[in-house]
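Supplementary Note 3. Input sequence used for the single-chain structure prediction.
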Amino acid sequence: MKITILAGTNRPDSNTRRVVKTLEALYAEVGTPADVLDLADLPPEIFSPTSYAEKPPAFVENFSNRILASDGLVVVSPEYNGSMPGVLKYFIDMLPFPESFERRPVCFVGLAAGNWGALRALEQLQHIFGYRNAFIYPERTFMPGINGVIDDSGITDAELLKRLRGQAAGFVEFVGKLRPDR
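The predicted structure, written as discrete structure tokens, is reproduced below.
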């Protein structure tokens, strides 16, 4: 089984990357190593208006093909101004339609400095992925006040780690039931 974790921002030194690092370790703990995609690594040419018609080879190889090869996708999104980062929506728009998310299990983790833990961003993402006919894992994890529960090594709060570990184990089971041939 191949799980892909998507760091949903290209902001340098983001808390999102620290959360992804923690998730990568948790998926390994539950016996399913994960492939990490980081939007900070998007090739600059993907932002050219011509990329709508013809995707840059580096994007196809390093991003699009890895999404298509994934059995399940974990989207980690910060909340920026009550929504997801614009680069995350743009990334979704650049992927092949409909095969990128059609019948692909997707799980969501949200983080924010404020009180709601990216609730709005994840709700918006659920609408988008629902429109794209993804199988949405119902157990979302919201991380409010992220600055108080994270450091350079990752998540430091034991209760939050327990919730993320449970989500990872549940998502692996979910993917296994929806894609038993993988």
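Strands lie at 3-7, 34-38, 72-78, 105-111, 135-136, 141-143, 150-151, 154-155. The helical segments are 15-29, 57-68, 86-94, 119-131, 158-178.
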